[in-house]
From TrEMBL:
<dbReference type="InterPro" id="IPR036098">
    <property type="entry name" value="Thymidylate_synthase_ThyX_sf"/>
</dbReference>
<keyword id="KW-0489">Methyltransferase</keyword>
<dbReference type="Pfam" id="PF02511">
    <property type="entry name" value="Thy1"/>
</dbReference>
<dbReference type="GO" id="GO:0032259">
    <property type="term" value="P:methylation"/>
</dbReference>
<dbReference type="InterPro" id="IPR003669">
    <property type="entry name" value="Thymidylate_synthase_ThyX"/>
</dbReference>
<protein>
    <recommendedName>
        <fullName>FAD-dependent thymidylate synthase</fullName>
        <ecNumber>2.1.1.148</ecNumber>
    </recommendedName>
</protein>
<keyword id="KW-0808">Transferase</keyword>
<dbReference type="GO" id="GO:0050797">
    <property type="term" value="F:thymidylate synthase (FAD) activity"/>
</dbReference>
Length: 236
């Protein structure tokens, strides 16, 4: 498990397959199977990735538990929605199960940037962020956010005390910075697609940190497949 941001984390729960799984999935049509990964097998992985023959990479699966602010979760969710189109299967090979405050009333946790973590607007884009703001401005907004969260928590707890159901009381909680927990199960191809986009320099800083954690946990398991799928522009 790797810690991300102030209170978040990514935990590798389970995985299925290896680089050898990719090789054997590709060779099954010839009724051939490798017992150990060879240099010839590594070249095959490189060929499959370079030529866009991606179905063998979908026989490898990873499962993560993720605890992240809602703003990160909602960016992440679109990879589940889009995976059926990206993989060309008609059905998504991603699964997502998220904790719900309809059923639980565990103490809410919130992402609060420190005084030196607030970023300004980008100079040449309508979205994203630029350089860090001055410490004094950042401290002002950290304090404002804390007050806002405290007020929301007070109203949430008062609603629960009055007997309001959890699924309605949660309306008082400030949403975008609130931490949520979910399981994400995905094919290796879909994981690499997520990494390609969310490790880019112009991706939101917070989700970049989660993508780095996903890569750090995944790469030792599938070093050749991830390396080739993420090789820019099919470089040799």
């Amino acid at each position: 498990m790797l810690t991300v941001l102030d209170q978040g984390y990514v935990r590798l729960v389970n995985h299925m397959g290896s680089d050898l799984t990719v090789v054997n999935a590709a060779r099954v049509s010839y009724a051939k199977e490798s017992k150990e990964l060879s240099e010839r097998d590594i070249k095959l992985i490189r060929f499959l990735a370079r030529e866009g023959h991606t179905s063998p990479f979908r026989h490898v699966m990873l499962q993560f538990e993720i605890y992240a602010p809602l703003m990160v979760a909602r960016q992440w969710w679109k990879y589940v929605i889009g995976s059926s189109h990206m993989e060309g299967t008609g059905d998504s090979l991603d699964a997502w199960n998220e904790s719900s405050r309809r059923y639980i009333t565990e103490e809410p946790a919130f992402y609060v940037p420190g005084a030196g973590q607030w970023r300004g607007k980008p100079e040449n884009s309508k979205q994203g962020s630029g350089d860090a703001l001055e410490w004094e401005i950042g401290q002002k907004h950290t304090d404002e956010l804390m007050r806002y969260i405290e007020e929301g928590l007070r109203k949430y707890e008062a609603a629960l005390a009055d007997g309001v159901c959890a699924e309605q009381a949660r309306l008082f909680l400030p949403s975008y910075g609130m931490y949520v927990r979910w399981y994400w199960t995905s094919s290796l191809q879909a994981v690499c697609h997520f990494l390609d986009q969310r490790l880019e320099h112009d991706a939101q800083r917070e989700i970049q940190e989660y993508a780095k954690a996903i890569l750090e946990l995944s790469e030792p398991l599938f070093p050749h497949s991830i390396g080739e799928l993420r090789r820019p522009n099919g470089e040799a």
